[in-house]
Amino acid sequence: MTASARYDLSGKVALVTGGSRGLGKAMVTAFAECGADVIIASRKIEACEELAAEIRLNTGRKAAAIACNVSDWGQVEQLAEAAYAQFPKVDILVNNAGLSPIYDHVEDVSEALYDKVLGVNLKGPFRLSAMVGSRMAAGEGGSIINVSSTASQSPGANVIPYAAAKAGLNAMTVGFARAFAPKVRVNTIIPGPFLTDISKAWDLEAFNKRAPSTILVGRGGQPEEIVGAALYFASDASSFTTGAHLTVSGGTYGG
Fold this sequence. Notes:
With about 260 residues, the chain is α/β, with parallel strands linked by helices. The protein is built from 8 helices and 7 strands, in the order αβαβαβαβαβαβααβ. Helix 2 (about 20-35) crosses helix 8. The chain is globular, with a radius of gyration of 17 Å.
């Protein structure tokens, strides 16, 4: 197999949660450009449908849009069923949907907020991986990609529930890799600070001033810079890689 053929996703079907914007959108677009049909899931169906139309127009691939709040166990189950109702299989699952609300003090974190953060970042990926991964393992196999965060490795004081959920996601990657071996590979991408639409809420002036002393490449990442890692794990290029964590952070460090 040639190097380019290892990254060919022709005949594959990819399901991406949080797929209508940011890193998810970049991954959906790349998968389609490499030949995969795609299922775009997020809470806002209009954004999913808009991207699906773009994918169909620009790549000629099939693209489906499905609304889902991944913190809701029942909606996650409905997402899995809808995916298999529209496509004969799912070869690639990306648990990308995330939520990271910032608070002033830990005592201000309500039970509702805590549950919401854990629901989106941990509960949803667990149930979706269980449902889709089981079918992958019973069929032709596949690849599950969990999108974590460098906060899982070095949590800040203002993102503790989020960091805990993402650390749990890292652990879940290894557990599911063992549960679904040898036919299903399960791996984690651990992004650092990316300049997506979410970063619009940041103090970008302060971020850019701080970046040279906290990020080795001296800047935040662009969404398309996640694509290499995603294609590696989604494709045959990573056929001997499972239970692994790949950090894509520009060399983020303390400082």
